[in-house]
Amino acid sequence: MMTFRWLFTVAVLSMTWTGPIRADEPKPLPADQFEKLHKLIKPQAGESRWMEIHWYPNIWEARQKAAKEGKPLFIWAGSGGAPAAGC
Amino acid sequence: MPTEVQDAKGPEGEFLRDAGIKKQWVTSTGYMSCLSASGKLLGGAPSAKVLETFQKLPEAERKPGAVVVRDLEPAEKVIPSPPEGGLILKVHGRFMGRDDKENLRAVKGDDFPQIRGKESSIRSHQFLFEPNTEYMWLTKEEWQSLVPAKPVKGDKLPVASAISERMARFHLSPRRALTSEDGIVARKDIESANLTLVVDDVSPQRIRLLMVGFVHHGSDYDNAKATSPNGPLGFGYETPIHGVLEYDRKKEAFVRFDIVAPGEVWGRWGDANGKSQTIERPGRSPIGFAFELATGDSPTDRLPPAGNGGRALRAGYFPASK
Questions:
Q1: Interface test with B, best of A59, A64, A71 (most B CBs within 10 A)
Q2: Residue B136 DSSP SS3
Q3: Longest dimension (CA), chain A
Q4: Residue B162 lies in a domain
Q5: Based on C-alpha coordinates, what's the Rg of chain A?
Q6: What is the ipTM of this complex?
Q7: Is B21 a member of any domain?
Q8: Are A77 and B16 in contact (CB under 8 A)?
Q9: pLDDT one digit per residue (tens) for chain A, 87 residues
């Protein structure tokens, strides 16, 4: 169940907010609150700069491109979390 | 790229092993390596030295077009491709904080008690203060199932559990998304994963749908046990879901697919040994996820879900792939 703290937080976000959302009582966020929240969570200017690089999802496709263009390959490998997640 | 490709059978794994990569990627932590298309290991992260090593290779190994790389057969590919005609969503997740009025805001180093006031620790964790981004896939049949055949304002449509459970298990997974520890949420740990669409507006050109729902997985919150570090409460997460979807009836495609999940986590952010991670906070702490359509302008948009598409598919990403 939602706690008082959560209820308080959401209440501040939206004065029209009446309570926790559950699937059986859907109450969409007001449009302005939704837009603000969506923008806040997405990468801001200067963040997630790794995404400025065009990453190829597999080694073979990158190898074909490197061979065609006469360039070296740069490989970034991880354990399988989101691409830039630490471990 | 998942490190497990180095162990894969077939041309991709062989290419890496022949270059000596298997000895370079020892554990699961992120690695950077530079190779030539001919299969020579040039070094670690890109540098002037790597380029110099590349330039010293014979022309037959570095001239444009000198190395011919055949196409792979579908069965030889280790990394899955997005489903034909499917829909790709970018999924951004980030730690969040609250300002003095309890409004959500981006997180800061001092929000984490274990590194609060420790400048060098805060600097070394800087990458955790930015969002992380990965990708969610829907098949053509799945996204088409979200479009009401005869839309009437106010109508409610339940979203197929295959989609809501996928979102909960593979994407609304704070530990996997933000620290790479632990991973896909087990189906048995899903307490709730419900999504509903509400028809908000209908015109000859567009159908606008609002998405609402709720996801909870892991433990139930217990304030007395939500201590940190190394408290007794298991990890738990819950979030409301809000979305705005717009379907272009002429293009027969979604042109907007924005979702937010302003949720909260509690309990133990276990590392590989089950110990609390540095970013663990006591009580309930905010985590935000935002979804949006991928444009497909970059090959990055074809990165597989959960950072490791093969593992996700094996864990039942698409119900038929169980």
A1: A59
A2: strand
A3: 60
A4: yes
A5: 21
A6: 0.92
A7: yes
A8: no
A9: 334 343 333 333 333 333 333 444 557 889 999 999 999 999 999 998 888 899 999 999 999 999 999 999 999 887 765 565 544
Residue-wise pLDDT tens digits, B39-62 = 999 999 999 999 999 999 999 999
CB contact under 8 A, A21 and B241: yes
Q: How far apart are the C-alpha atoms of B46 and A8, rounded to whole Å?
A: 48
Asked if residue B244 is part of any domain, the answer here is yes
Q: Which of B81, B105, B134 sits opposite A82 (nearest CB)?
A: B134
Q: Does B139 touch chain A (CB under 8 A)?
A: no
Among B64, B12, B79, residue whose Cα is nearest residue B299: B79
How far away is chain A from the Cα of B249, in angstroms, using its nearest Cα? 22
What would the pLDDT profile of B153-163 be if each residue is shown by its tens digit? 999 999 999 99
Interface probe, candidates B16, B31, B99, B130, chain A, greatest A C-beta count within 10 A = B130
Of B12, B54, B283, the CB nearest to A72: B54
Q: pTM of the entire structure?
A: 0.89
- Are the C-beta atoms of A2 and A21 separated by less than 8 Å? no
Owner of token pair 């006031």: B117
In a domain, A31, yes or no: no
| Domain-ending residue, one of B38, B56, B76 | B76
**Dihedral pair phi/psi, residue B311, rounded to 5°:** -65, -40
Per-residue model confidence as pLDDT tens digits over B208-253: 999 999 999 999 999 999 999 999 999 999 999 999 999 999 999 9
Co-location of B220 and B162 in the same domain: yes
> With an 8 Å Cβ cutoff, is B285 touching chain A?
no
Split into its structural domains, chain B has a count of 2
* Number of separate domains in chain A: 1
Domain final residue pick, B46, B76, B106: B76
Is there a single domain that holds both residue B27 and residue B120? no
- Is B82 within the bounds of a domain? no
Angstrom distance (rounded) from CA B119 to CA A57: 35
Which residue among B30, B71, B92 sits closest to A41, beta carbon to beta carbon? B92
- Asked if residue B152 and residue B108 are part of one domain, the reply reads yes
Nearest to B177 among A43, A70, A85 (CB): A85
Asked if residue B79 lies in contact with residue A57, where contact means CB atoms within 8 angstroms, the answer is yes
What is the span of the domain harbouring residue B47?
3-76
**Contacting residues of A for B278, CB less than 8 Å apart:** none
